[in-house]
Amino acid sequence: MATIRDLAKHTGFSVTTISRVLNNDPTLNVTDNTRVSILEAADELHYSLPKTRHSHKHRLVHIAIVEMMSLKEQLADPYYLYLKNYVVRNCMEHDCNVSYLFEQSGKYQTLEKTPLDGILAIGIFSEQQIAQLLEISPNIVFVDSSPDERRFDSVVLNFRLGVEQALDYLLYKGHRKIGFLGPAYKLDQKKRPALEARRQYFIDYMKNAGIFDEHLIIDTGLSAKDGSAQIRKWLEQKDHIPTALLAYNEESAITAVSNLREVGLRVPEDVSVISFNDTPLSILTDPPLTSVTAHLEVMGEMAVKMLLDRLDDPQHLPYKIVLPPTLTIRNSVVEVPDEK
Length: 340
Hints:
Blueprint: H1 4-11, H2 15-22, H3 32-44, E1 62-67, H4 71-76, H5 79-93, E2 97-104, E3 107-110, E4 118-122, H6 127-136, E5 140-143, E6 153-157, H7 159-172, E7 178-182, E8 185-187, E9 193-195, H8 197-208, E10 217-219, H9 224-237, E11 244-247, H10 250-262, E12 272-277, H11 281-284, E13 290-293, H12 296-312, E14 320-323, E15 326-328
Parallel strand pairs: 1-2, 1-4, 4-5, 5-6, 6-14, 7-10, 7-11, 11-12, 12-13
Antiparallel strand pairs: 2-3, 8-9, 13-15
């Protein structure tokens, strides 16, 4: 990456003049041609202004990470494992000291004795757990949940937009018999039983499109074992099957591909499949899965930035960032004749 001295050598202007142009100094009296020359050179040499250092940079920031899921649970569905890795990576990029909170006898603890500046809470936590975290630090950012946007910073995914993108694509490909794969109930933002959001958005969309068929909803439960059993049972009882399935997460999508093949159905030739989350597992699946991409790297980046901003200004209003997912198209969806 070019330095400001490289720009000076390249353009022939002084370092002071270049710095004042790039910082848009209103008191600088230079011609428009000079400004254009400097800006074009900055673009050509890929120059960027040095990042402003936060006030917290004057000391080492100690951040603790607390996770909803155990390592065993993360290995079964690695969404949170990848999310945690991106959070840790961004902490390291900001030169933060990272430790982990763990529950013991119903209380959160850390092995380190250094006082914590803040907490990054990954996943969903109960009101009791949140109260315990507040006893450790008032500076908490929730990642992939928003238990109280009046009090806490948070970064979440727009599930409704993700469902709409997936179904828009399937309709574009001619699909009308579209099924949903996922549980009826999950946990809400405070770890209480609630209707599963993606499933409800699916039902709303399909009803509005006039093509909802309740028989094409497959209730998988929350575990892969339960999901596999439910899919097999559903396949045995149905006289007809959908031309496409939208799975609420990657684990259920991969399970469905396996179960469909066991009964002689091909993916995507007989049944197209779209998954949520899009971790590297989606690429490794045969066929690679078309997926609603959650952009976990951006979620991790935003969460760390929000916490560091909170440390600089503890009084600012809580922020809630709702990230838009995108649809990553691979080989698990084919076009079918339009049935309208």
